[in-house]
């Protein structure tokens, strides 16, 4: 198996971010973004996707969580794109639904090289801890646009935003793990065009 890893640094006037990713990992993570609930979500993302992930972000959290969550989504998307390279041998598609108590979230992904994003549903509360609930949607959008994913996401049901957001992150992790796995039957890029 090739070494499907990446390291991305992103520095703007609003954030200073470093991300490392191993697609074929054990689910180990070290995360420090300054937004506690976001750290919890990224740790769950790594654990349930079996990605080894480190994230360090020094962001303008004295303003709010937006630039931090968005910037990490961008950097992580770039890391996936770099780690997957020409996407040779991957399964490419995946569809996952994940429950967390009363909440259910779903993700359908195509590692297509063509960024597209859809979100359906709503969150029951405006924020969880220091993170605005809608930033979960924006994180997924930023990830999709920068990883080159066609990504459809949905919060199907729930009454607790913590559960809804966590189900969404876990569904995203499981779908990405499925879609980026290597298929031993395939040696080429999974596209009739020959390129993704």
From TrEMBL:
Keywords annotated in UniProt: Amino-acid biosynthesis, Cytoplasm, Histidine biosynthesis, Lyase
Catalytic activity: D-erythro-1-(imidazol-4-yl)glycerol 3-phosphate = 3-(imidazol-4-yl)-2-oxopropyl phosphate + H2O
Single Gene Ontology BP annotation: L-histidine biosynthetic process
Gene3D superfamilies: Imidazole glycerol phosphate dehydratase, domain 1
EC number per UniProt: 4.2.1.19
Pathway: Amino-acid biosynthesis; L-histidine biosynthesis; L-histidine from 5-phospho-alpha-D-ribose 1-diphosphate: step 6/9
Main location: cytoplasm
Homology family: Belongs to the imidazoleglycerol-phosphate dehydratase family.
Protein name: Imidazoleglycerol-phosphate dehydratase
Organism: Halobaculum litoreum
């Amino acid at each position: 198996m090739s070494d499907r890893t990446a390291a991305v640094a992103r520095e703007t006037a609003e954030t200073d971010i470093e991300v490392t990713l191993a697609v074929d990992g054990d689910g180990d993570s070290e995360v420090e973004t300054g937004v506690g609930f976001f750290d919890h979500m990224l740790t769950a993302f790594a654990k349930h996707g079996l990605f080894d992930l480190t994230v360090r972000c020094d962001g303008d959290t004295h303003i709010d969580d937006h630039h931090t969550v968005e910037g990490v989504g961008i950097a992580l998307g770039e890391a996936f794109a770099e780690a997957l390279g020409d996407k040779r041998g991957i399964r490419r598609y995946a569809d996952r639904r994940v429950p967390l108590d009363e909440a259910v979230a779903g993700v359908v992904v195509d590692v297509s090289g063509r960024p597209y994003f859809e979100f359906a549903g709503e969150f029951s509360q405006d924020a969880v801890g220091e993170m605005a609930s809608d930033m979960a949607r924006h994180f997924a959008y930023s990830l999709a646009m920068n990883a080159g994913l066609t990504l459809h996401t949905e919060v199907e049901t729930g009454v607790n935003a913590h559960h809804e957001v966590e189900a969404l992150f876990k569904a995203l992790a499981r779908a990405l793990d499925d879609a980026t796995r290597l298929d031993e039957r395939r040696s080429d890029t999974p596209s009739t065009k020959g390129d993704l």
